[in-house]
Amino acid sequence: MNYPNFTTEHKSLMRKYLTKDVFEELKDKKTLNNFTLENAINSGVQNPDSGIGAYVGDQESYTVFASLFDKIIEDYHGFTKDDTHKSNLNVDDLDAPLNDDLDKYIVSTRIRVGRNLDNMPLGTSISIKQRAEVESIVSNALSSLEDDLKGTYYSLDGMSEEISSSLIKDHFLFKAGDRFLETAGLNRDWPKSRGIYHNDNKTFLVWINEEDELRIISMQNGGDIKTVFARLIKAVKELEKKMSFSYSEHLGYITSCPTNLGTAMRASVHIKLPNLSNDMDRFQEIANKYFLQIRGIDGEHSKSVGGVFDISNKRRLGVTEVQCVQDMYDGVIALIEVEKSL
Ligand code: ADP
Ligand code: CIR
User: Fold this and answer.
1) Residue of 15, 110, 112, 316 with catalytic role
2) Both 69 and 102 in a single domain?
3) Are 140 and 205 in the same domain?
4) Are residues 66 and 102 in the same domain?
5) Is residue 202, in this structure, part of any structural domain at all?
6) Residue 68 contacts by C-beta under 8 Å, 6 or more apart in sequence?
7) pLDDT score for 301
8) pLDDT tens digit string along 184-238?
9) CA of 276 to the centre of ligand 2 (A)
10) Which of 158, 261, 263, 341 to pair with 255, CA 20 to 30 A apart?
């Protein structure tokens, strides 16, 4: 493999930190699952507009390709090799009272965590047989959940176009054919062993075998962030009793994209900010101050529609789950104040 042909269009963190020296050091290395540097950077090489541009194949990749991933991790999360990750899933430590403004401006709230099974390669290098094993372990565990977490698993293989499009449109299901995931090897054998579990009112959902083996999701209309967080914690604790997740003392929960390490948590709101949308510089300045990321409303790399944005915590590693939600809450309160003044 030769050093990639980067152009001025390539803006990712991978492109920034894959110097010729780092490339020479890593180009012939591979993990026990045969994951190579070429596999790790393909998504960022093929998609110049990537923000990050790299995925790992397994937990070992974070050590084998450390000269690249340590720098990406430090840049994105502000987390260094000597830092340690901490967890806090106590909902009572969250200071997020509900008020009328939150319900007025927030359309819906969603909190998700990513998880991958211990002793299993990640989706980027998993075999068709192992992927089916993941689907079976996770869907069996889900079928034993009770009360408000009780639901049904729907396989994507055989799901009608009509049902999948409506689930995607209503923000419940991941979309097919994402070009970043495609070039990362995450869409191999599509749609085999992919699916979605949800309870009747779609406030608790689990995606199986998308970017991570599990995405555990709690969501509902309106701005009651604490209730959404409490439901997510309950679900995560129930699932932990039934399976073991890939975890490292240093990096927290192991995920295929380095942006999701640590808590693997993204707490987001869809929020109406039509005035602020006319001053994107100011909007971005507030987002930076509160460690927020701004996305459009149809998922990552999508656009805002009608002045509604997806606002979420940016940091996930080296901060606790409570802090991730607190970042989002504090930032949203600040955004609403500015929106009202405009
Ligand atoms: P993630 O990595 O968190 O799964 P995406 O940005 O790809 O991120 O979003 C996945 C789906 O979740 C998309 O359909 C998106 O519109 C939806 N979504 C994200 N946040 C919210 C929210 N607060 N309310 C409703 N839907 C949401
Ligand atoms: C990119 O580099 O822009 C994509 N690979 C997405 C990176 C962060 N998002 C994610 O993990 N979902």
Assistant:
1) 112
2) no
3) yes
4) no
5) yes
6) 14, 17, 18, 22, 26, 37, 40, 41, 54
7) 84
8) 999 999 999 999 999 999 999 999 999 999 999 999 999 999 999 999 999 999 9
9) 25
10) 158
pTM: 0.97
Question: Encoding tokens for residue 11?
Answer: 């803006």
Residue 115 φ/ψ, nearest 5 degrees = -145, 150
Instruction: Clarify whether residues 73 and 101 are in a common domain.
Output: no
Domain membership of residue 43 as a residue range: 13-77
Site to probe by mutation for ligand 1, drawn from 170, 310, 314, 335 as the one with most ligand atoms within 8 Å of Cβ, is: 310
Q: 198 pairs with which residues across the strands?
A: 152, 205
Examine residue 296 and state whether it is found in any structural domain, yes or no: yes
Burial 54-80 (b: 16+ CB within 10 A, else e): bbbbbbbbbebbebbbbbbbbebbebe
Number of domains composing the chain: 2
Q: How far is the CA of 117 from the centre of ligand 2 (A)?
A: 21
* Integer Cα distance of 14 and 48 in angstroms: 10
CA distances from 227 to 28, 97, 167 (A): 49, 10, 23
CA-atom Rg of the chain in angstroms = 20
* Confidence category of residue 304, pLDDT binned at 50, 70, 90: confident
Do 158 and 230 sit in the same domain of this protein?
A: yes
Distance (angstroms) between ligand 1 centre and the Cα of 116 equals 19
Burial state string for 158-185 with b = 16 or more CB within 10 A and e = fewer than 16:
ebeeeebeebeeebbbbeeebebbbbbb
